[in-house]
Every structure is written in structure tokens, then in C-alpha cells.
Amino acid sequence: MAAQPTYLRNEALRTVKSGYAGNKLFGSQFANGEELYTPEFSNVFRWKFLTENPQKEEKKADTWAPGVVDCTEFLKGREDGLVWLGHATFVLRTEGTTLLFDPLLFDSAFLKRRHHLPCQPEALTNIDLLLLSHGHRDHLDEASIKLVARQNPGLRVLTSLRMAPLLRSMASGLQVQEAGWWQQYDLGPATPGLEIYYLPAAHWHRRGLTDLNKVLWGSFLIRTQGKLLYFGGDSAYAGHFEDIERQFGPLDICLLGIGAYKPAFMMQLSHTNPHEAAKAANVLRAGHLVPMHYGTFDLSDEPASEPIRTLQDVAQGGMLRPDLHVPKVGEVLRWTEWE
Asked: What architecture is the 5-337 domain classified under in CATH?
């Protein structure tokens, strides 16, 4: 008999969505919204052993990678800006506060960068807030967490429910604040003019054999300088985009994933493809879209340049509401100047 669902949130934090009881749990597993989602191993087996990529030769010939410019001087300074470090890693600076999102700074046995990091990892100092959307290894990297924690002793981590034990196994002294969906973090008096919310995503969690969906996943909304900036984390296309727009109204800047979408039977419940990302940005009534989660790692079957080419085609065809920004890795985006 299936376990009766329970609900969990951080009772010390404000819940901004009226009537929201918390994140649904079936036993020890978080639900993907209202329903429990369990990735099927059979799909992995089908992908790896039973299906041949119809774009195999095209992918092999596609050696495109994003351009890279050095951002070390920006990291040393204090001016406002937004910098993509590749994949889903960003640095955002606003009003003297520096935020780092989902840092993945090193290669591993399974993840090899297709382009250089735009700075030395040691340049990531003076980080005030570390925002971790979920626990997958291409977003939560142990070596990166250890380095960032060591170089930023006053760092505060904003993340999801039941993430703290995992993080403290990597860096025991971390200050971690967990939130459920639709909750506002308590930033205290040190960051006036900055509000950060943890919001839904359609995804899942697993790092080992026994932790399936035991740590929550989600996205972030930052309100600062009269603007709303949304970091989508990893997410399939689902109804939460409409929910977020209803709760907060039009968003100014959206950082949304566009890669790792083929084959669809494997990826469609985890990531948005370029058309879905454009639809999400339109639903969110975004003013500006900065794509991410493409070009840095080989995670799926589509050729490297296909995600950004497709999104640019969508924009040129008049089917994308926001202004599209396609920065080089390391390029400083002066987001405070965007209308």
C-alpha cells in the first residue's frame, strides 16, 4: 500500500503562496509537484544500448563551443553585472552583494568541459551567497563546493529542503538555509534591498543508490533594484511557469536551460528544449532571456550547436517575447541597464 502523503516546509520562513501547505512527500520521497516522479532505469538502458542516435554523425562533426572571455577583473571588482561561467553556473552582483549559482568549476570522470572556464577557480572570492538549485552532480559538485567554501569563510548557502546534511558532508562549517517551494529566505539586515525566493521546478534528485528524491529540487527568484531575475535550475516544461507568473507578475530577466533534450523519451521530464524554454519565457512574460545549460558538457544526443541555433531561429521567427541575450562565457552582462 502506497504511503500517505505528508507535507514539509521550513516553518521558520515565510511562505508566499496563499494556502500552500508545503512540498508533498510520499514516504521519504519528494513529489514532483503533486505526483511522485521516478526516473525509469529502463529508459537509460534503452538510450545507451538499444537506440542509435540518428544525429550521430552530425554530432560528431559539430565541434562548436561558446566563445570565452576572461572575467577575472570583474570578479575582483564590485560593480554590478551578470556573468555566465558555463553550463548553469552564474555570478550575479547587485548592490555590493555577490551571488554564485550552481558552481561546477572542475572536470570529473564523467563531465569534461568543451571550453575553458573564464577565470581560475581561485578567483571566486568575496562570494556572499551561494545558491544551489538541486543535488545533481552537474549542479552540485563536491570539489567546487569545497573550494568555494574554503575561499569564502563568511559564505551563506541558500538551497532546498534536506540539502544541509549533504553539503556539510562536503564542507562541515557551511551556513545553510533550506527552503521549500514558494518560500522566501531570511537574509537578515546584511542585504537590504534584496529578496530571494525558492520556487518550483519539474525535476528530481539522485546522487547515489539510496537517495532517490530525498532532497528537494527547485528554482530561484531574486528581487533587486526594482527587477525580478529568475534562475530556472533544471526543469521540464510544466505548469509551474504559469504559477510563478501568477504569483509575481512579469519577470524582467530569465535564465533558462535549453540543452540536454534528446532523446525525448529520456530527457523530456527533466529538461526544456529550446522551443519549450521559449514558451516558458513567454509564459513568464520575461523582458530578457539568457539561455544556459548548453555548450559546456556533452550530456545528450543533440549536436553541440543545435540548442542555441534553434533558439535563435525561434527568436528571429518572432516567436520569442523577451529580448534574447547570447553572451560569451565570461562576458559581463550589464543587466541593470536593460529596459
From this structure: 4-Layer Sandwich (3.60)
Alpha helices, DSSP H, located in 33-78: 41-45, 56-61, 72-76
Domain extent listing, the chain: 5-337
239-264 tens-digit pLDDT: 999 999 999 999 999 999 999 999 99
Bridge partners, residue 219, by sequence: 199
CA distances (Å), origin 291, targets 90, 96, 307, 309, 317: 11, 25, 9, 12, 17
Q: Around Cβ 211, how many Cβ atoms within 10 Å?
A: 15
What is the distance between the terminal CA atoms of the chain, rounded to a whole angstrom? 54
Q: Which residues pair with 98 in a beta bridge?
A: 93
Evaluate whether 296 touches 257 at the Cβ level (below 8 Å): no
C-alpha cell at 287: 523582458
What is the per-residue pLDDT across 222-237, written as a single tens digit (0 to 9) for each? Answer: 999 999 999 999 999 9
Cell numbers standing for residue 46: 534503452
Predicted model pTM: 0.96
Parallel, antiparallel or unpaired: strands 323-324 and 288-292: parallel
Give me the amino acid identity at 293.
H
Instruction: Kindly report the backbone phi and psi dihedral angles of residue 45, in degrees, each rounded to the nearest multiple of 5, phi listed first.
Output: -60, -45
